[in-house]
Write a structure and sequence with these properties.
The complex is a heterodimer of chains A (116) and B (124). Chain A has one domain: Alpha-Beta Plaits (2-Layer Sandwich). In chain A, α1 runs antiparallel to α2. A 4-stranded antiparallel β-sheet of chain A has the order 2-5-1-6, covered by helices on one side. A two-stranded antiparallel ribbon of chain A has the order 3-4. Chain A is α+β, with helices and mostly antiparallel strands and 116 residues long. Chain A has 3 helices and 8 strands. The longest helix of chain A is centred in the middle third of the chain and has 12 residues. Helices cover 27% and strands 40% of the residues of chain A. Chain B is an alpha+beta fold. In chain B, 30% of the residues lie in helices and 26% in strands. A 4-stranded antiparallel β-sheet of chain B has the order 2-3-1-4, with helices on one face. In chain B, α1 packs antiparallel against α4 and α2 packs across α3. Chain B is elongated. The N and C termini of chain B lie close together (11 Å). The relative contact order of chain B is 0.30. Classes of the chains: A alpha+beta (116), B alpha+beta (124). Chains A and B meet through α1, β2, β6 and β7 of A and β1, β2, α4 and β4 of B. β7 of chain A pairs antiparallel with β4 of chain B, so a sheet runs across the interface.
Chain lengths: 116, 124
């Protein structure tokens, strides 16, 4: 069983998270830019409220057993300072039913089991 | 309903669009993404590094490089998932690493904004 982990992080933290995942042995990641707001309804600077804050979405599909490890890796790398701050982001987990590798046409679940 | 997320090469987008249309899948959504996979090794570089060329060793260090990709999302009924997966896979296969991945995920519900229809009717 594979799961998709989508993390919305600060753009400036994305490289740290990517490096942390690489070191942790999870090189496969897709990154794209998004904008959004959270519970704080954006950010107010002076008179102007910014409610579409630029963020980076990092998406990785991993085996279910690795879920907690990957989440902790992303969380430790994406947190500002030791305490964290508003705007550090969110991590969402979703089920993935099938994974295919296009270059080989292999359904990935079987391969993942073998590799263990 | 299922959500099929495919990460494919940028220059394959036109072919993928045409192939999906031919297969009867009209609606999809795509955006730019950057990504890396399990990583592949260029044999020439490895050999060069082994023979002691510093330039090759430096290039080998670029393991975490992100490559530009397109992320295609198609939401279809359960019965059409195989069509979509096969179409995308056949169109995008060059056999080399970097062709991409396809993920199939469950979607509990979908709503068409214009009419408010929910469920399968909204994606038909």
């Amino acid at each position: 069983m594979m799961i998709m982990i989508r993390a919305i992080v600060r753009p400036e933290k994305a490289d740290d998270v990517l490096a942390a995942l690489m070191d942790a042995g999870f090189p496969a990641v897709t990154k794209y830019s998004v904008t959004g707001r959270g519970k704080q309804r954006g950010i107010k600077i002076g008179e102007v409220t910014y409610d579409e804050i630029p963020k980076t979405m990092l998406m990785s599909v991993v085996r279910k057993e690795d879920k907690d490890f990957v989440i902790n890796t992303v969380m430790d790398a994406a947190r500002s300072g030791t305490k964290g701050a508003f705007g550090d982001g969110k991590i969402f987990v979703a089920d993935v039913e099938d994974v295919y590798t296009i270059s080989s046409g292999v359904k990935e679940d079987a391969v993942a089991e073998e590799a263990v | 309903m299922k959500e099929v997320i495919a990460i494919v090469r940028m220059n394959m987008m036109n072919k993928t669009k045409a192939a999906l249309t031919d297969a009867g899948i009209d609606a999809f959504f795509a955006h730019e993404a950057q990504g890396r996979g399990m990583g592949f090794v260029n044999r020439k570089l490895v050999e060069g590094a082994e023979e002691g060329f510093e330039e090759a060793a430096v290039l080998l260090g670029e393991k975490g490089k992100l490559y530009p990709k397109r992320m295609v999302t198609v939401v279809v009924d359960d019965s059409e998932v195989d069509t979509v997966v096969d179409t995308i896979m056949d169109t995008n296969r060059t056999g080399k690493p970097g062709d991409g991945k396809i993920f199939v995920m469950p979607i509990p519900d979908a709503v068409r904004v214009r009419t408010g229809e929910a469920g399968t009717a909204s994606i038909g």
